Structures are given as structure tokens and as C-alpha cells.
Amino acid sequence: MLTIVRRPRANGSSAYRAVVRVKRKGKIVYSESRTFDRERLARAWGKRRDLELQSVEGLEKLKAAKLTLAELITRYIVEVDAIKPFGRSKRYTLESLSALDLARKIAIDLTSADVIEHCKIRQLKGAGPATVIQDVHHFRALSCRVGAANYYLCCGFREASS
């Protein structure tokens, strides 16, 4: 689905942002945008990108939307640890997170309510505030770094629907 948004610039000119989104079962599983000086360029890019995502190859790229949090953590450990090795504590924490019930959930479906529930459970089990916030930081790192690299995940967590 393509949307063109006109954005005024400080110098008075306009920029046009093309936003391409893919929805599955009413949820956004992929979103991409680019800004252009001309509306015609934005519309052309958006239409081309929309067609690419509708193709078989485009859908292959979206397979990451089906990864569980545990699979995402494992892939994060393999790919990021090779570039910048983790310390013993970070590796242990990530492996512990991948063993939780929360890790069986599809990563793209993770909501802020899921993370809050995880934090409450961790506190009830005796984890201190620093430990709980460390888990949240790891969730965010997974979402951002892996998302930026390969998985097209949004940075941060989506709000839970009421």
C-alpha cells in the first residue's frame, strides 16, 4: 500500500515522502519510506517498490516477519557476535531470554504489553530494576540492529491494541 505525504521544509519548499507498507491479517509487517523533492519521483518509487514487495522475491524478504523471538535472538547472537564479540554476561542474558515463554512468540507481534508483562514476571521472581531494564535494552537492541540489518522490523515495540 502506497501513501504519499507532502512535507513542508524550513526554506518553504516541499518534500514528498513515499511510504510503502505491507499488511498481513490487518497488521503492518513491513514499512519503508523515502523522501523526494518531487511528487512524481516519490510516486514512481513507491509504485515500483510496492510491485517488488508483491513479487515472490519480495515476499521472501518478509519471511523474517515469521521468526520467533528465540530465532531472532539466536540469529542476532550469530551475526552480531561475529562483528563485535559479546561479553559473557550479555551472551548469558540473551540465551536466558531465548529460553523464556515470551521467546516462542512471533517477533513482529511483540507488543509493549508483552514486554511489560515480562518485566513484572521478572520482578516477581526477584530480579532487580537494573536486571529488568537490561532485558528491555536487549529487546530493543534485537529489534533495532537486526531489523536494520536484515529483518525490516520497526525500531521499538508496537503498542498493544485495546
Annotate the secondary structure layout.
Elements: E1 2-8, E2 14-24, E3 27-36, H1 39-54, H2 56-61, H3 69-83, H4 88-98, H5 112-124, H6 129-151
Poorly predicted spans = 148-162
What is the overall number of helices?
A: 6
Distance between the termini: 24 Å
Helix content: 40-55%
**Main sheet overview:** 3 strands, antiparallel
Summing up helix and strand content along with how strands pair, one would put the structural category as alpha+beta
Main sheet: which strands, in order across?
A: 1-2-3
Strand content: 15-25%
User: On the 0-100 scale, what is the average pLDDT?
Assistant: 81
Q: What general form does the structure show?
A: elongated
Radius of gyration: 19 Å
Total strands: the figure is 3
Order of helices and strands: EEEHHHHHH
Structure commentary:
By secondary structure, this protein is an alpha+beta fold. Helix content is 52%, strand content 17%. The protein has helices at residues 39-54, 56-61, 69-83, 88-98, 112-124, 129-151, and strands at residues 2-8, 14-24, 27-36. The chain has a 3-stranded antiparallel sheet with strand order 1-2-3, with helices on one face. A hairpin with a 2-residue loop joins strand 2 and strand 3. The two termini are 24 Å apart. The model is unreliable at 148-162 (pLDDT under 50).
